[in-house]
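Q: Joint fold for the lines below.
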Amino acid sequence: MELEISDSDAAVDTHGWTVLTATGEIDVAAAPGLREQLVALIEGGSNELVVDLEGVDFIDSTGLGVLVGAVRRARSAEGDVRLVCTNSRLLKVFDVTGLDEVFTIVESVDDAVTVAADQG
Amino acid sequence: MELEISDSDAAVDTHGWTVLTATGEIDVAAAPGLREQLVALIEGGSNELVVDLEGVDFIDSTGLGVLVGAVRRARSAEGDVRLVCTNSRLLKVFDVTGLDEVFTIVESVDDAVTVAADQG
Amino acid sequence: MAEIHLEIPPRLDYLAVVRLVVATAAALDPPLPDSRLDDLRLAVTEACSNAIKAHRPEAEDEPVVISCRLEDDRFQVDIRDRGSGFDPDALTVLPDVDDPKRLQHESGLGIPLIRVLTDEVTFEPAPDGTIVSMTLNRSSPST
Amino acid sequence: MAEIHLEIPPRLDYLAVVRLVVATAAALDPPLPDSRLDDLRLAVTEACSNAIKAHRPEAEDEPVVISCRLEDDRFQVDIRDRGSGFDPDALTVLPDVDDPKRLQHESGLGIPLIRVLTDEVTFEPAPDGTIVSMTLNRSSPST
Ligand SMILES: Nc1ncnc2c1ncn2[C@@H]1O[C@H](COP(=O)(O)OP(=O)(O)O)[C@@H](O)[C@H]1O
Ligand SMILES: Nc1ncnc2c1ncn2[C@@H]1O[C@H](COP(=O)(O)OP(=O)(O)O)[C@@H](O)[C@H]1O
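A: Joint structure:
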């Protein structure tokens, strides 16, 4: 798994949201790295986070758990973690675990930073 | 492995040479298909053949054997089989087997159809 | 009926190898459909990562064993560890997804995922560990 | 020292699985360099396709066994078949590449390739077959 964080010079206007782009497999080996990054961002005050999963082709329960924890932390700081995902493989995993009802899942980074807060 | 044969409408002028483009792995499972295609072409009179290996990422001894047989058949019909290959993985295999001295190996289809016959 | 056995050291960095082997085997003739391959890949990852985590440190020289049987109508895979065993029916049930407490739980999704992704699963105590046996039918995806 | 064992049915369509497993195992910590991974992938393919071809039809229910040992300084892989055995020193030597007769030979490149791609190879008669043992050192590619 690779991670990349948007900087303020990014071409796309993210309306103040921080975009974390993950690629590859988020499995039990990669999950700790993702968790560390998410916790650092939220504790550093970036509690409006977009995790772009468009380049991710596999996620296991450990990866799901890291996303659950990040959503909890962000929401308890009045923020949110929104997931960009259109890959049917991943959507199926969110679906069968019921997590599609817990996460805010959108189709693009643009959607993520413009949907109204209460749609989460 | 996938195979594709150039048709006469092709954008590139192949000076009468027939171009066979292989992609994927040419291993013992795929080699018979390649052999059948090459034999059919040569017996059908297309004895000036280019085999484009740029999309091939693996070749084993069976694949090499098929190419050797095709070169023999084409040359005994006053033709040749020329290989387009710049992939260092494959070039290494041609090198360690000495087959780089048997085959005509060039860097592009364009080179293949324009080099002088005696450079083979 | 073809069989494939794979023995790996009890280390999480071997999970990618296991995924590859099992999915490649299942894609052979007659292949599992793509969506079932995804189910298999995830179910095997979950079962194997549990097996590796449960494997006793004293048994680190003994492998986790993955055995696949390719049958005409289904694909079966057993995963055997040298762990302390467990009772799959005694696990904490996760809160409903509309319960705010759901967000308190970052783990415990592995076994539920295995149950929903496979057509059949059994957890058998083995001498010295556990054998998790999963079956995926070629037809009629369960999900 | 980690070990991986893989048992496959004696069928050529399993070669891709073997390549994947062996190369993935060898890419783990500490990884073989990329060019050596290529050597390994090809040497293992050649040895395994010989093993599968040599495997006796009556033994079709018995597997071809691939065993990898990952050591700090080298990667070792054994391939064991249930074939009739052979004498590697009695094989036809291919004509020189500048001999026009070279083109008469479409086969016989497997063992020479194994010899040049590995740092060490032995062909041992086993009860009921052959064990081909190949070693690739992590450093100093042989070619
Ligand atoms: N093969 C196994 N051997 C021993 N215990 C196991 C095994 N598989 C699962 N468990 C137990 O069941 C629990 C639940 O597993 P799981 O649903 O995969 O969630 P998680 O691994 O996130 O805890 C594990 O925490 C572990 O205690
Ligand atoms: N594992 C094996 N068991 C029995 N015979 C073998 C084995 N490996 C190789 N051989 C014999 O050695 C010959 C040469 O093998 P090789 O150099 O790989 O070329 P090829 O497979 O193209 O004939 C084979 O044809 C076979 O007769």
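Q: Anything notable?
A: Helices of chain D lie at 15-26, 34-54, 110-117. Chain D has a mean pLDDT of 92.
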